[in-house]
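Lab meeting, item 3. Inverse folding demo.
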């Protein structure tokens, strides 16, 4: 593990007036603690309802065994942050001659970087003036929100995302929050900024929270077979991650058990987001090797979709087309 990261940020999550565009830190990250060779293969890729072959599969040998989520670093092609359930936040650099993976922020204790599942970048228009934090992550079991810069400043904030009540049976601690994403006001159907989070199971749900207060706004349980998520229960055996398509504001929902991505649109109800439903508009089938599960997804600046897997430690690039 890398050296203990000093707690240096305090993310204000209560004052909406505090939002203002802020340029994230561009400080050089810490010297890589571990490296791994990346092998590259290439095959065609299309977006259809039939199995999709990734255009590039970069195998990060021995580096991402417990990968849980991934986010592209915008403005830096080939650079990603990956949350590893055991090792912390990893920096992945895909370069022409020297691809490598390094521990950017290690896991010095049980209350810092372990159990992280969701990871996303804060859009420039939603950055908070009092904190330069450019990324946030969420812990699966506790729902604790972690805010940090690529340069290393980090704060385990007081904010948490409360688990939704189980729609049937009992809640399962290891089936908690799995993914998190930002939905900016420009893309949201109600023209307000939101955080979108997915709950893996018991219940399997898509939840919306106000930004920056993180107060609950709407939870759509997919496993209650109700009208709110009609048909999605069968399509998605569980929920592993979510990202927002910046072209149209649609949500890409990932299921590792189904090895599938389902694209949905948010349909406002008669009370706005409080009665919103989800409507499926497309699917992508992901061909996985035996024992491999797709755990996280992100869109890069070129609009290409990247999937991170556990066990095999691969980054799969899937172009979504025009």
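The presenter then showed the designed sequence:
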């Amino acid at each position: 593990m890398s050296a203990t990261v000093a707690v240096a940020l305090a993310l204000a999550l209560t004052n909406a007036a505090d939002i203002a565009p802020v340029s994230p830190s561009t400080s050089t990250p810490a010297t890589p603690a571990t490296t791994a060779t990346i092998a590259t293969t290439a095959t065609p890729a299309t977006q259809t309802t039939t199995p999709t072959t990734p255009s590039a599969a970069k195998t990060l040998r021995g580096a991402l065994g417990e990968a849980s989520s991934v986010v592209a670093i915008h403005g830096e092609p080939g650079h990603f942050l990956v949350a590893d359930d055991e090792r912390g936040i990893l920096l992945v650099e895909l370069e022409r001659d020297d691809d490598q993976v390094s521990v950017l922020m290690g896991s010095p204790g049980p209350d810092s970087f372990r159990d992280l599942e969701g990871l996303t970048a804060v859009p420039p228009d939603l950055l908070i003036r009092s904190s330069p934090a450019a990324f946030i992550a969420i812990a699966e079991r506790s729902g604790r929100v972690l805010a940090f810069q690529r340069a290393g400043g980090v704060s385990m904030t007081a904010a948490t995302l409360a688990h939704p009540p189980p729609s049937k049976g009992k809640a399962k601690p290891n089936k908690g929050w799995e993914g998190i994403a930002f939905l900016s006001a420009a893309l949201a159907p109600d023209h307000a900024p939101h955080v979108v989070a997915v709950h893996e199971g018991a219940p399997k749900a898509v939840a919306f929270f106000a930004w920056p207060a993180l107060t609950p706004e709407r939870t759509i349980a997919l496993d209650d077979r109700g009208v709110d998520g009609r048909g999605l229960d069968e399509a998605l055996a569980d929920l592993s991650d979510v990202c927002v398509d910046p072209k149209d504001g649609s949500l890409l929902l990932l299921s590792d058990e189904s090895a599938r991505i389902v694209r949905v649109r948010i349909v406002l109800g008669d009370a706005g987001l409080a009665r919103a439903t989800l409507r499926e508009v497309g699917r992508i089938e992901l061909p996985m090797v035996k024992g491999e599960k797709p755990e996280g997804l992100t869109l890069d600046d070129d609009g290409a979709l990247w999937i991170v897997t556990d066990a095999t430690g691969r980054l799969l690039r899937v172009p979504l087309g025009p």
